[in-house]
Design a protein that fits this description.
This protein is α+β, with helices and mostly antiparallel strands. The protein has one domain: Cysteine proteinases (Cathepsin B, Chain A, Alpha-Beta Complex). It is 22% helix and 22% strand. A five-stranded antiparallel sheet has the order 1-5-2-3-4, covered by helices on one side. The longest helix has 10 residues.
Length: 139
């Protein structure tokens, strides 16, 4: 049995720290997609002081070819997908990437049970990082 070596298998999941008090969602999207911070941030020129909403995050992921499954929950789904973005505490986004928890505001992240989970968005690649039409319509 052969296992492909990837940067993540050698160095661990890609980590991006948030740069502003309200950009945890931007940093999480960068971590989930292995993009750098800057191009993701440019996609949200009018980001409000509260940061990114769930709708903005899901629409951005779908635009880039990912399917999502959303859960309103206070605990992780019984069998969560290895990748996802989680809304915790008072509107802070964190990432589960390959089963590893990443928090753009702190490294290392706290244990999952130390966060108050509000929403869980599972990520399901559907071709991945291939932008759909500019009008972002989905069929």
């Amino acid at each position: 049995m052969s296992t492909a070596l990837t940067m993540e298998s050698i160095f661990g999941p890609y980590y991006v720290a948030q740069r502003e008090s309200n950009d945890c969602g931007v940093a999480c999207l960068a971590m989930l997609t292995s993009l750098s911070y800057e191009p993701v941030r440019r996609d949200f020129p009018d980001m409000v002081s509260q940061g990114l909403s769930e709708v903005q995050i899901v629409e951005w992921l779908q635009h880039w070819g990912f399917w999502t499954k959303r859960w309103w929950t206070s605990r992780p789904p019984a069998m969560p997908a290895p990748d996802g973005i989680i809304l915790v505490d008072d509107g802070h986004w964190i990432v589960r990437r390959g089963g590893t928890l990443l928090d753009p505001a702190r490294k290392p992240a706290k244990a999952l049970h130390e966060y108050s989970i509000l929403k869980w968005i599972e990520l399901c690649p559907a071709g991945g990082l291939k932008p759909r039409s500019p009008n972002r319509e989905t069929k």
